[in-house]
Amino acid sequence: MIDKLSTKNIITWCPGCPNFMILASVKKVFAKLIDSGLNQKDIAMVTGIGCHAKIFDYLNVSGFYGLHGRVIPTCLGIKLGNPNLKVVGFAGDGDTYAEGMAHFIHAGRYNADMTLVVHDNQSFSLTTGQPTPTTQLGYKSKASPLGNFSCPINPIKLALASGVSFIARTNARDISHTSQILRAAIKHKGFSFVEIIQDCLIFNKDMNAKDKLMYEVKENRDKKTAEKLADEWNYNDKKGKIPIGILYRVEKPTLNENMRKNDEEK
Amino acid sequence: MRLNILIGGKAGQGINKISEIVSDVLVNYGYFIFNYRDYPSLIRGGHNFNVLSVSDKKVGSHESKLDGIIAMDKKTIRLHKAELKKQGFVVDFKKFEKDNLGRNLNITLAGCLIKILGIDKNVLIDRIKKEFDNPEAISAAERGLNSEEEKFGLRKLASKINILSGSQAISLGAINSQMNIFIAYPMTPATGVLHELAGRQKKYKFKVFQPENEITVVNAGLGASFAGSKTMIGTSGGGFDLMTEGLSLQGQTEVPLVVYLASRPGPGTGVPTYTSQGDLDIALRGGHGEFPRIVVAPGDPIEAIEKTNEAFYLSEKFGSLSVILSDKHLAESEFSSDKKPNKIIPVKIDRKIPGQSIVKANSYEHDEFGNTTEDAGLTKKGANRRIKKYEEIKKDVRKFEMIKIHGKKDSENLIIGWGSTKGAILDAIEGLDFKFLQVLYMKPISDEIKKEIKKSKKVILVENNVTGQLGRLIREKSGIKIENRILKYDSRPFRSDELKKEILKIK
Question: Chain A interface, mutation test: which of B216, B232, B258, most A Cβ atoms within 10 Å?
Fold first, then answer.
């Protein structure tokens, strides 16, 4: 099955990049879903622009290699256009939280049945290492030689505040856990958001190697607990603990369900 | 016979209801109408007015001199008295102040107007009964009918006439094309189509979605189309600016997309509830990179139905971007016609879609499978494919009406215009030694235009913008500079009597 999901394109990520592991996790999940009856033709992926997005060329499924920041709108359109498709978006931290921030907040409100996977390496790497909205204060780059002037946002807290119905975090290097969480995310009815913490081997290396801070949590459905879990890591330093797993989950009607319901009521 | 009646009042008082009722009665009586709507950007108060032009022949504009004023407030009389002809009449709301009509004042005023026009009162009563099932509305109408003297004695004519606004017509064109999804963010004057389609989504089984901004509108529009839905998106100039990244993405991915652009005066927020033809340039060029597109500009609702259908057809057939260019004057005015639109062209989805096969759309330059490439040869191949596609579009559109010649066909005096100025130009040249070349396809543009100009002695360009954008386009394509230009850019549309004077001034 895994072979059927591969393409012949030459992979151009840096040697050792955690994106290889994310690709392996995604293939594993897709293979499992197909084994349990999903038609390969019913998968539609969307990617943004950045290192993460190269995954588009390495997966043999339908897809839309969209614009920087527009993974969510493109996924939303595909889901509206054909509600039968399993829509999975891959985006970067700059992609999602800088250029596309408005879409992220509204995605929680719409709750369309789709999955957003954010490859968060706290750096704009394909443009050679400028700070993103999750980069730590003081980070020096060619664009910020005096040190990054702004503090990072916490996407988990933002997702909670925006009403996202499935919020998870994983470690790119942990293929077994990541694929397990991705599978749950894709199966979730509604908008699911998975943030994958990954190192960049070239830029913002100060933030790398956080594995020992990470610990697995059991699926959580309590909002207060979710807020506490979200607060355990501030993205700004390597102190505290980084909970991984399903940090929050709730059942809510999806966009297509609400559209159908309104249609019946009229 | 032609009459111009101004109906004015504060926003929220219901002047549109008066012109709607009277227009319905008039077309049932066999008369043509044109209703111009003038309103500032506010919801309650201020000063709104409509000018209802009535004729026993086709009419597509209003005039500057008024035969009558229907006033729902004092301001209407104060502001418009000077425009009234010597024999003109005024119906003053004050006359009914003691009647306690409340919300039914507009029905009473409609009754006054019907009586003045000399139309059989039962036609009005039947129309009122159709909409309002209450005795107060009927007595309000009768109060009006009994308070005025007949002045014009209109007799019933045989013509079968329908009323449509530009917004309604664009919506019908989309429905005729069996559109599956319409996505838009509200912006005057494009909002009319959002409202029309939202109201019809259940009956015709399509989806209407209003997301957080126009950037989402265009990217979701492409996503929906990629997934196999016939998709239209709608906006005005400022929203179109935001969409341009997606127009360029369309060029690279070749996913079909229809964009409705209703322009208003810019730059910036400009004059939001008024009109302009200032956005032809961005319709033609918005979006980075070089890629083909189609830009159509209907001049009345019948053409709006036809050109919207053609825009869908071409977009789906060639995987191209189709822009339907309109403006406030076309979108929001009410037009009457005794014509039926051309036969519907079926729009078929004949391409690979996800769910049925594995298909990739890519914003990068790509190979035949949709995978990314930076190869020089493949880059050139992609560019050549897009250019070749435009050559095919150019050939295919010849089967549609790209231009129309109106007026005196053998005249050597030529007026050139496009879009919503059509009505005023046709009314202005009535009886004059002129022909009117109306451009409907802005891109690709017809080769016939050059020939027509060369055949003519006097050529006049008429546009509702500052710089004569069609004139510039014609010069780019033909090398001919049109010296005589009548340009109006005060955010108001042409009035036919004033335009006629301007035309006759040019020697």
Answer: B216
Last residue in a domain, options B370, B399, B428: B399
| Neighboring chain A residues of B245 at a CB cutoff of 8 Å | 67, 70
Total number of domains in chain B: 3
The predicted structure's pLDDT at residue A266: 47
ipTM of this complex: 0.97
**Interface residue A150 vs chain B (CB under 8 A):** no
**Are B381 and B280 in the same domain?**
yes
pLDDT tens-digit map of B166-194: 999 999 999 999 999 999 999 999 999 99
Last residue of a domain, one of B85, B110, B145: B145
User: Nearest CA of chain B to the CA of A79: how many Å?
Assistant: 7
Burial class of residue B66 in the structure, from the number of CB atoms within 10 Å of its CB (0-12 exposed, 13-18 middle, 19+ buried): buried
The answer on B211 and B122 residing in a single domain is no
User: CA of A76: which chain B residue's CA is closest?
Assistant: B220
Residue type, A60: N
**Which CATH number applies to A2-265?**
3.40.50.970
Distance between CA atoms of residues A4 and A38, nearest Å: 14
For B491, the token pair is 């955010």
Q: Nearest-CA neighbor of A135 among A203, A67, A71, A192?
A: A203
Instruction: Kindly state whether A49 is in contact with chain B, defined as any CB-CB distance less than 8 angstroms.
Output: yes
B498 and B361 in a single domain? The answer is: no
Tens of pLDDT, residues B335-356: 999 999 999 999 999 999 999 9
Which residues in chain A are closer than 8 Å to B211, comparing Cβ atoms?
Answer: 73, 76, 106, 110
